[in-house]
Amino acid sequence: MARGGKTVYGAQVGILMLETRFPRIPGDIGNALSFPFPVQYRVVGGASAARVVQGDPLALVDEFIAAGQELVRMGCDGITTSCGFLSLVQEELKAALGVPVAASSLMQVPMVQALLPPGQRVGVLTVSAEALTKAHLAAAGISGDVPVEGLEGGQAFSRAILNDAETLDVAACREDMRVAAQALMEQGEIGAIVLECTNMAPYAAEIRAMTGVPVYSIVSFIEWFQAGLKPRVF
């Protein structure tokens, strides 16, 4: 007996998107081909990357909740977002939406840290180390000091994302990732890397090859999230 109650079926994960125009290459959360399963999207009007990263996303929480509620009504069983800085709205979203919420890739840090041998620690690559505060980390369940390396300072990657450019120099972004990952590794005892920014996932394999340590992104997080919402049938 088939059961109803939803409008759309087969896409358990709903993604709250910032309102952007920069290119979303494969691996980016905003490219649906990044996932081996269907996802649903809703754009949160007025939520630019610069406003969320460099401002206070809590000022937009009502807009995020409204978009999340629409995704839940459409049939999503879990909600995520397209920016790691939205850890600050995790509590508000899960309280309002009534379904599991994975607001930020940063939420992987405590889990990954628990996997590492003694003496090793998780490092974080972010679009802006200056803007990533202890409040963002605490909201993602991260306690204590965490090595962080940012890509601010006029680099190709941060310019494209924070200025919402319509073009993306992918080769230059790869070089930005290489330089930032090397700087992060030089902080010492880095046993794994978590990519805060959801636009960094396209470069995860290259960062892994260069550093030799595991790399976790929003894509790895959503794949884990989906695995609980719809477990494989054996």
UniProtKB/TrEMBL annotation:
One family name in Pfam for this protein: Asp_Glu_race
InterPro entries according to UniProt: Asp/Glu/hydantoin_racemase, Iso_Racemase_Enz_sf
Domain of life: Bacteria
Transmembrane spans: none
MF-aspect GO terms: amino-acid racemase activity
Similarity comment text for this entry: Belongs to the HyuE racemase family.
Name of the protein: Aspartate/glutamate racemase family protein
Annotated source species: Rhodalgimonas zhirmunskyi
